[in-house]
Design goal:
The protein is an alpha/beta fold. The protein is built from 14 helices and 8 strands.
Length: 277
């Protein structure tokens, strides 16, 4: 497959590896697209697996609705279900980083029969995140999301001077220059940055659902890194309370938020070990 459709939108997807092998769906976060996983997927292919890596809602040129209401988590979950249906896959191993992790948590709760294993990188369970806001520095760490609620101005600031402010912010948080340059170039596509920021602008519409999200029952691995500037330790440690199924918590010492880009081999080995015990 090169594309699939849902909700009147057309999504790009990288469908590679062994057709007929176990399927692994990898969900990117902000601001990267499918290329986030370029250095991770070869490990799955070596195991004879099929990887499905979509450009998610707002990132695919054919899937950039304008309304913020189109960027609620329920829509993202429906998009992944549509991908599985289009690929002819009953259930898959789900991997998500950053916002892709939020989608993965919700998918595992709402459609556990479609999730063989859940593998989340960086992002805690939504209820753990909400609880940590009043118990730690998490509210301060997430304050940039409040600033991004303002329409248009964040886009103008981040893309000024050919995207120099966005590039500095990414490299300053530990993302390698190669990836930062790629992500900035992609965000300069018409409408892409606004659509990506709409994920954040829809957060107030998602908060009630996040607080009420059930515990996860499928086998779950959560990978968190100690130098993540956006997501702190308290939420990471609380996440275990919200998983009722088999649970594995892996901590990467001295690693930034950008785990798939900076530690792809180590991450791929952890994922392969969890998916194929």
């Amino acid at each position: 497959m090169e594309t699939f459709t849902n909700d009147g939108l057309t999504f790009d997807v990288l469908d590679t590896g062994t057709q007929g092998g176990q399927a692994v769906v990898l969900l990117h976060g902000f601001p990267g697209g499918a290329s986030t996983w370029d250095a991770v997927v070869p490990r799955f292919h070596a195991l004879g697996m099929r990887t499905l890596v979509p450009e998610q809602r707002g990132y695919s040129p054919g899937a950039r609705p304008r309304s913020v209401n189109e960027y609620v988590v329920a829509k993202f979950v429906d998009d992944v279900v549509a991908l599985l249906d289009a690929a002819g896959v009953r259930s898959a191993h789900i991997v998500g980083h950053d916002w892709g992790g939020i989608v993965a948590w919700n998918l595992a709760v709402e459609h556990p029969n479609r999730v063989s294993t859940l593998n989340v990188v960086s992002t805690p369970h939504p209820r753990a995140f909400v609880r940590s806001l009043s118990m730690s520095t998490q509210a301060l760490r997430s304050s940039y999301g409040v600033a991004w609620q303002v329409p248009r101005i964040p886009e103008l600031v981040m893309l000024a001077g050919g995207g120099a402010p966005l590039r500095r912010a990414l490299t300053g948080s530990g993302l390698p220059e190669l990836y930062a340059e790629r992500y900035v170039r992609e965000m300069r596509e018409p409408g892409r940055l606004t659509a990506a920021l709409n994920w954040y602008r829809a957060v107030p519409r998602n908060m009630r659902m996040g607080r009420a999200l059930d515990n996860v029952e499928v086998p779950t691995m959560y990978v968190w890194s100690t130098n993540d500037a956006a997501l702190g330790r308290r939420a990471a440690e609380l996440t275990a309370r919200y998983v009722d199924g088999p649970y594995r918590f892996e901590v990467l010492e001295g690693v930034s938020h950008w785990v798939p880009e900076t530690r792809p081999v180590e991450l791929a080995e952890l994922l392969a070990d969890h998916i194929t015990p």
